[in-house]
Amino acid sequence: MTSIPTATGTIESSDLGRTLVHEHVFVVNEEYRENYEDWDEEQKVADAVRDLRELKSLGMDSIMDPTVLGLGRYIPRIQRIAEQVDLNILVATGVYTYNEIPFQFHYSGPGLLFDVPEPLTELFVKDLTEGIADTGVRAAFLKCAIEEQGLTPGVERVMRAVGQAHVRTGAPITVHTNPHTGSGLVAQKVLAEEGVDLRKVVIGHSGDSVDLDYLTQLADAGSLLGMDRFGLDVLLPFEQRVETIAELVRRGYVESVVIAHDASCFIDWFDPEAKAQVVPNWNYRHISQDVLPALRERGVSDADLETILVHNPRRHFE
Question: Considering its fold, how many domains does the chain have in total?
Fold first, then answer.
């Protein structure tokens, strides 16, 4: 077993239980919120507690929350919520960018104006080993992104820093990818160059693709396939998402599959009412209520689902 930090303390990997590997609690631009958002902190926290308690009641035990710099990570709010729910919340460190890195790191680093060791790597390692800010909460995993823009200099710098932090700490990695550009393969290449064990990597948003050749290539290199956007039917319809997983299981790749919604209690990217109309199933309930029954109908056994929900996330940390 392996000890894993959560928002409320350390658990053993055997205590993860059924785990959704990519769920945000809040995605909020804190600078925008402070200046423009009509925000009721107590109500937002209460809503999140309600949603996460419901998720627990539906049979889930843990979520991995990949909300990092660039997505509005604010650990004190997550702590308040985690203390009120019987659900493990694992937080992350990293940077979410499709292009440039934040200006706080733009001029400092190897060969830059202020020529110092990579500050991103040092920051990530500190979050993983000592804690985030003064909260006492340690990150459990690392997060980076590569989108259709490809391997820009900023994206590459973050990704290599994530790889270096993994090598120093052993912490697993989640990568936001765009499967339509094959960026998961690019991420694997860059991370492997930094010495990353690709078995410790989730290639996020793989579930947006039905390209089985691409998906099995990622899996054959050792990584887990993040089939993690259930409810975002505007990106790929529900039927295709579940059928892709069922076919992967038929082909013997059940140990390569992890699932989630990429949902949140609140996200400030969209008007809440419009979001509810366009993606009505994009919520924490969808997998328990709709996806698991649909997978069973397609021949995915309860043992297979146990592998996907319990054993694969546990192995990701062990």
Answer: 1
Binding residues: 22, 24, 143, 176, 205, 262
Write out the DSSP string of 161-226: HHHHHHHHH---EEEEE-GGGTHHHHHHHHHHHTT--GGGEEEETGGG---HHHHHHHHHTT-EEE
Which pTM was predicted?
Answer: 0.97
Helix axes 75-82, 41-57, angle to 10 degrees: 50
Q: Which domain holds residue 198?
A: 3-317
Q: What is the CATH number of the domain that holds 269?
A: 3.20.20.140
Distance CA 127, CA 91 (A): 10
Residues of each annotated binding site for Zn(2+): 22, 24, 143, 176, 205, 262
Dihedral angle, C-alpha 248, 254, 257, 258, nearest 10 °:
140
Query: What b-and-e string marks burial along 304-313, b requiring 16 or more CB atoms within 10 Å of the CB?
Result: bbebbbbbbb
Amino acid at 76: P
Per-residue pLDDT tens digits for 30-67: 999 999 888 999 999 999 999 999 999 999 999 999 99
